[in-house]
Amino acid sequence: MLYRAMRPILFGLDPELAHRLSLASLELVHRLGLSRLAAGAAPNLPVHAMGLEFPNPVGLAPGLDKNGEHIDALASLGFGFLEIGAVTPRPQPGNAKPRLFRLPQAEAVINRMGFNNIGVDRVVENVRRSSYRGILGVNIGKNSDTPVDHAAEDYLVCLRKVYPVASFITANVSSPNTSNLRSLQGEDELGALLTVLMRERNVLAKEEGRSVPLAVKLAPDLDDKAIESIADLLLAHRVDAVIATNTTTSRLGVANLPHGREPGGLSGAPLRARSTAVIAKLSRALKGRLPIIGVGGIASAADAREKFDAGATLVQLYTALLYRGPELVGEIVRGLAASEAK
Predict the structure, then answer these.
(1) Which of 76, 175, 267, 275 is catalytic?
(2) What are phi and psi of 128, to 5 degrees?
(3) CA distance 260 to 184
C-alpha cells in the first residue's frame, strides 16, 4: 500500500533517479526492520533445481541491483533467490543518458543501460559484506570496449572472481545494449564460449570443493532453428540451466506509445507471450533434461503459472515490481501455493 501511494511521486521523477530513491527507501525500511511487514509473508514452496534447494520458485532478475548493494533488503521481500549484475571485469559507466524509459500504458520499460556497474572486484566485496545466505546468482558479461572475439577472456575473469561467492553464475550473451553481444548466441560462437567456461568451471570446482552451476541467458528474438541449435549446445556442454528470456528489441504493441520507439531492450507485460513461447520451444527441445528459468512479463501468480506450464522450473521478476511494488513477491508466491493446494 505504501508503494502505491509513493508511485505517482516516483513516476514524476527521472526513471534512474526514481530507481535509486526506491532502493534507498527499501534499504531504510529494511534497517528499521519493517521490510517483511511491508512485503507480506511468502510461504515455503520448495523447488529443487541445478542441485540447489530453492525455498520458493520466485526470484529477482538481474538489473535491479547491478552492484549487489541492496542484497539483504531485497532478500527480505520474500524472494526464493536473487540474481545481481550484470558485472564486467572493469567498472564502466554504461551508455549515455537518458537510457531508461517507462511505458506506463503497457506496464513496460525500455532500457539501454549497457552493463553499467562498479566492476567485478567491488561487487564481490559487496556480496561478502552482506549477511544473506540464501541462493544468489551473479550475472556476468563483457566490457563494452572488449572486442567480441575476445569476449571469452572477460567472462573467464568474472567467472573466476565471482565463483567463491555465487550460488549460480549466469553467462549473459543476450543483452541488446552491448554492441555485438548477441552474436555470441551463434552456434560456433556459443559453442566456443561454453567450451572455455565449462572447462574453467570444472577446474574451479576441484579447487573450491564445490561445483557452482552455470546458466546461459538467451534473447527472446531467436528463431526456432536457433533455439533448437542452442538447446543441443547446452546439453552437449552440460550447462546447468538456461534462462529465457532477456529483453526484446521488438516494439510490437508499444511503437505508438510515448518512448515506444526508443532503442534498447523492452521488458514488462508486452514481453510475456514472447518469452513464454521461447520457454515452450526450449522445453520441447530439451525434453526436461535442463531446468529453465522463465523471465518476462510476470506480474501475477497466473503469469508465473503460465511460465511453469510452458516448461519453466523457476521464474524471475523485475519490471512488474516497478509498477506493482514489493508486495508483488509475496502475492505471487501465495497465489502459487494456493493453486497447488487445490
Answers:
(1) 175
(2) -65, -30
(3) 27
d(CA 257, CA 280): 29
* CA angle (294, 304, 99) in 5-degree steps: 60
Known catalytic residue at 22? no
Over residues 83-100, the pLDDT tens digits come to 999 999 999 999 999 999
* Full 3-state SS string of the chain: CHHHHHHHHHCCCCHHHHHHHHHHHHHHHHHCCCHHHHHCCCCCCCEEECCEEECCCEEECCCCCCCCCCHHHHHCCCCCEEEEEEECCCCECCCCCCCEEEEHHHCEEEECCCCCECCHHHHHHHHHHCCCCCCEEEEECCCCCCCHHHHHHHHHHHHHHHCCCCCEEEEECCCCCCCCHHHHHCHHHHHHHHHHHHHHHHHHHHHHCCCCCEEEEECCCCCHHHHHHHHHHHHHCCCCEEEECCCECCCCCCCCCCCCCCCCEEEEHHHHHHHHHHHHHHHHHHCCCCCEEEECCCCCHHHHHHHHHHCCCEEEECHHHHHHCCHHHHHHHHHHHHHHHC
What is this structure's pTM? 0.97
Question: What gap in Å lies between CA 318 and CA 301, rounded to an integer?
Answer: 14
The model's pLDDT over 180-201, given as tens digits with 9 standing for 90+, comes to 999 999 999 999 999 999 999 9
Q: Which CATH entry fits the domain spanning 2-341: 1.10.10.10, 3.20.20.70, 3.40.50.410, 3.30.70.270?
A: 3.20.20.70
Residue type, 328: L
The grid cell for 53 is 534447494
d(CA 298, CA 267): 10
